[in-house]
Design goal:
The chain has a domain of 60 residues. It has 3 helices and 5 strands. It has a 3-stranded antiparallel β-sheet, with no helix packed on it. A two-stranded antiparallel sheet has the order 4-5.
């Protein structure tokens, strides 16, 4: 019989540990199937806590159109000097 799956690796990925810590003891609306924690993002790419790179197909329309950390957007945001806290606006 052909073996389709290898035996599990003893070392748990950092991603899974971070996901379990984030979701333990709390009610969250995020999907449990996707157990990835983004460590960094730029343009259309994201990197998980273990250094694996992915195309971000889950970020929504803003990310799809503009990308993560778009210099034009971040420069305009900094120039506005506006602080956003939970949806409220306050002058910086």
């Amino acid at each position: 019989m052909v073996r389709l799956f290898a035996a599990p690796i003893a070392r748990e990925p950092k991603d899974r540990r971070l996901h379990r810590r984030r979701h333990s003891g709390a009610v969250r609306a995020s999907p449990q199937r996707l157990r990835l924690i983004w460590a960094e993002a730029e343009g259309c790419r994201v990197v998980d806590a273990d250094g694996r790179e992915y195309l971000d197909l889950s970020g929504g329309f803003g990310v799809a159109a503009l990308g993560h950390r778009n210099p034009l957007i971040t420069d305009a945001w900094r120039a506005q000097r506006v602080v956003h806290a939970l949806g409220d606006l306050a002058e910086a």
